[in-house]
Structure formats: C-alpha cells, structure tokens
Amino acid sequence: MSWLDEAIPVLRVIINDLGDTPTYSDGRLEQLLVVAAKLVHQDFKFDTYTISVSSSTITPDPVDDDAFLNFVVMRSACIVDEGMLRTKAHTAGIIARCGPAMLDTAGQLSGFKELILFGPCKAYAELKHQWLFSGNMTNIFRSIYGPFTSNTFSSGGVGFSLYREGYYS
C-alpha cells in the first residue's frame, strides 16, 4: 500500500474536500503532500527519507511511519489554508453595487484568519513543538549535555559553577 492511499483521504477530510465533485484532484493533492513532506523533512530532519518533488516520490515508502505522515498531512492542510487566505485577501474589502443589490466580501477574511490561527497551521506548530521537546529526546539531550557533563565547567584550570555564581539555587 502506498503512503498516498493513506494520506490523500485524511487530507481531504481535514480540508473538507469531500463529496462527488472535490475541489482538488488526487494528482494535485499528491503534489501538495510531496511538497509538504519536503518541508517536514527540513523541519525535523527525518534522515530515513529521500524526497523528490520533481518526480513526486518519497523513498522508502513511509506508509508505516505514523508520525511522519501526520506531520505531512497537517502541513499540507496548513498550506491549503494559507493559499485560501491569500486568495481571499485579494478580494477582501470589495463592495459592488448594482441598483438595490450589493455584494460585500469584507467579512470573509476574518474567518480565514481564524482558520490560520486555530486550524491546521496551529495544530502543526503544536505537534512540532511536542515532537521536538518530547518525541525526539535523544537529540535534545545531546545538545544539552554535549560538551558539559555537570553544572561545573572548568576551562584552563579555572572552575566555574552555575550554583556558586548564583544562577541556580
């Protein structure tokens, strides 16, 4: 089973692109997912995957990597929402009148801002934060404990203690 067989239906549900005549084709969603995978790869450094945007491939197939696929789908949904916000921003504030009829699109933009602030983009940011600070603890500990093994640092025979200098009590 290909990872796209899992990711495309989940993405369709999140962006509400269901029904008999969806807005996005499967090919377009595939492109979107591969671009999002490239961005996720840059954010998290998943070393196991090679991602080619030009050929729309990810090797090896990440079908069993739930964390990676969840990040890719959320990032894809965020990209869709950002694109819709840009589109709506171009038409926001247009008021057209023809006799007694009036078209006012000014109110639509605030709804899309809310979607960006509280929708998939925020969910992606929160998942990223949780993953970086709890899901991948090995790399965090390496960076914290790298050159130091205790709270005392000695360089050239001069001792320095964070406790002694009053930084910690």
Describe the structure.
By secondary structure, the protein is of the alpha+beta class. The chain has one domain. The chain is 55% helix and 13% strand. It has 6 helices and 6 strands, in the order ααββαββαααββ. The chain has helices at 3-14, 26-44, 66-91, 108-118, 120-135, 137-145, and strands at residues 50-52, 57-59, 95-98, 101-104, 152-155, 158-161. It has a two-stranded antiparallel sheet. Strand 3 and strand 4 (101-104) form a beta hairpin. Helix 1 packs across helix 2, helix 2 (26-44) crosses helix 3 (66-91) and helix 3 packs antiparallel against helix 4 (108-118). The radius of gyration is 23 Å and the shape is elongated. It starts with a helix and ends in an 8-residue tail after the last strand. The model is unreliable at 137-169 (pLDDT under 50).
Beta-strand proportion: 5-15%
Tell me the Rg in angstroms. Answer: 23 Å
* Low-pLDDT ranges: 137-169
Summed over residues and divided by their number, the pLDDT gives a mean of: 75
Strand order within the widest beta sheet: 1-2
Distance between the termini: 56 Å
Main sheet makeup: 2 strands, antiparallel
Number of structural domains = 1
| Helix and strand run | HHEEHEEHHHEE
Class per helix and strand makeup: alpha+beta
Provide the helix percentage. Answer: 55-70%
Total strands = 6
**Overall morphology:** elongated
What's the tally of helices? Answer: 6
Can you lay out the helices and strands and say which pair or pack?
Blueprint: H1 3-14, H2 26-44, E1 50-52, E2 57-59, H3 66-91, E3 95-98, E4 101-104, H4 108-118, H5 120-135, H6 137-145, E5 152-155, E6 158-161
Antiparallel strand pairs: 1-2, 3-4, 5-6
Helix pairs in contact: 1-2, 1-3, 2-3, 3-4, 3-5, 4-5
